[in-house]
Amino acid sequence: ARAVCAPLQNGIRWAGEVLESGVRLVADKRELAAENQRLRRRVAELTQETQLLTELRFENQRLRDMLGFARARPDWTLKAATIIARSPASWYHGLTIDRGERDGVRPDMVVVTPQGLVGRVTGTTARTAEVLLITDRESAVGVLVQANRIQGLLEGYGDRNRLRMVNISYDADVRRGQVVVTSGVSEIFPGGIPVGKVVSVSSGARGLLKQAVIRPAVDFDRVEEVFVLVSEQAGGS
Fold it and tell me: pLDDT by residue (tens digit) across 29-87?
């Protein structure tokens, strides 16, 4: 009887082991799938936290730069503002900031960053203000070459990477790499605000005047926060 039953018992035992092994395999797969899902969620959480920390670090650096700029100009009354919209007609013609009449912001107040000149306020509501950028074709600013005080007029191209300095005397020593700043010969723009650097110089019509291409000091692709220069003289022509 033992001899006859032994193979059957072995077969039953083997079938039981296979079944148990299959059950364990299914359980292991389910556990692994659940663990994989938990790990995926944790990776997503960590990625989001890392992105947030990176963004906070960049924002902290920008705010530090702005604070240092404000402290370096104690003669200016500056109002910090955040850009909340850009012109739908063209990314580089104008923008909207989150400061308005309730904050003491009025038309023709100057807008700057620690890097340089952004533009001027052209209109306000109670809580917002519209800013015309110096890159706009309608913009005009009196400027000079910082090194030798050669004066000219800065015009916008409607291009984020280029400005044009015109009305330069034909014999003026204007060269590539020179820094251009506001001249202060204006009721709106105070003097000494960085505008950009000379990229190239060419002769104007009939060779009577020169003009220069200027690369803006402000990176309009990246600017997010600005200062409004609050001034009693704002509102002039």
Answer: 778 888 888 888 888 877 877 777 776 676 666 667 666 766 667 777 889 999 999 87
| pTM, rounded to two decimals | 0.71
CA distance 107 to 172: 34
Strands (E), 1-146: 77-86, 94-97, 110-112, 117-124, 129-133, 140-145
Output the CA torsion sign for 166, 183, 213, 178: positive
235: left (phi over 0), alpha (psi -120 to 50) or beta: left
**What is the token pair recorded at 29?**
């797969």
Q: Distance between CA atoms of 129 and 175, rounded to whole angstroms?
A: 37
Cα dihedral 230, 83, 48, 64, rounded to 10, equals -30
List Cα–Cα distances, 200 to 49, 80, 212, 214, in angstroms: 45, 34, 6, 7
Of 183, 172, 173, nearest in space to 208 by CA = 172
CB atoms inside a 10 Å sphere around CB 71: 8
Task: State pLDDT tens for residues 189-215.
Answer: 999 999 999 999 998 666 688 999 999
Radius of gyration of the chain (CA): 33
Cα–Cα distances in angstroms (integers) from residue 67 to residues 57, 100, 118, in the given order: 15, 21, 17
What would the pLDDT profile of 137-179 be if each residue is shown by its tens digit?
Answer: 889 999 999 999 999 999 998 788 899 999 998 889 999 999 9
**Residue 190, token pair as written in the block:** 């105070």
